[in-house]
């Protein structure tokens, strides 16, 4: 979470000037404060793409609590919680709105988007089995699923609804399950391809391409949060100089490359140094935390803590 929070906060401040729903003469300070704190809202935050973070912080909170539980089946506990929340979410956000016509605001606590986090947890649990599948078939299934879901969604509900900060009704359940399934195929295919050595070929050009994709992947959340800002700046520059029709495609390619470059630079110059500082042994929790673990009777965690581990970092020095 630390990896993207900085970019989000910067984006909120840029978003004040670019967000069409904000009038600087009658600026809504409460809306800004909620956006800045990633507080669940019924409307989009100042930085529009930040709506997904409102759902993610709930998952991160749940995962953090579960990781602190002194049981070996933490992942299964998290899976059970997500299943329960999703089932309750179907009742609150699908059954009640469609039958009774009442929308219930629950601050995303029973959001249908829990289904997509659920998919991620299931893939994590089954990754060893997934590695044996034909990755080409899985990736093809992902592409066909994305195309199919987009077509069905456009036909029945319209693609504009995909930008809403919450999902409800039949459109909502189609949104989270359809794209969740497509994403599951894609991630599973990439896992299988990696486990089968498809990304470790010896060709220099191939290795360079894979390394570049890994770097972009590491910077992907910064890219997600900053691309609209970069596009806005590039768009204003294009408007000042004028772009002829013949150069529209190169101009679009330049805008995409600029967005990627900004995100990669943020990752290399801000995220990486900060995360490296966070994960240094001297900046981890001190002996007082170890004492609390010992006093709680969690001997296994205490033994691992003495070797440089604790449950908030999940890494060894």
Describe the structure.
With 317 residues, the protein is mainly α. It has three domains: 1-59, no CATH class; 71-198, no CATH class; 208-303, no CATH class. It has helices at residues 2-18, 29-36, 51-67, 74-99, 114-125, 127-130, 135-156, 169-195, 204-218, 220-241, 248-278, 287-295, 299-306. It is globular and about 55 Å long.
What brief labels describe this structure?
317 residues, mainly alpha, 3 domains, 13 helices, disordered C terminus
Shape: globular
Mean pLDDT: 80
| Proportion in helices | 55-70%
> What's the end-to-end separation, in Å?
20 Å
Roughly what fraction of the amino acids lie in strands? under 5%
* CA-atom Rg in angstroms: 22 Å
What's the short story on this structure?
With 317 residues, the chain is mainly α.
Give the SSE layout.
Blueprint: H1 2-18, H2 29-36, H3 51-67, H4 74-99, H5 114-125, H6 127-130, H7 135-156, H8 169-195, H9 204-218, H10 220-241, H11 248-278, H12 287-295, H13 299-306
Helix pairs in contact: 1-10, 1-11, 3-4, 4-5, 4-8, 5-8, 7-8, 10-11, 12-13
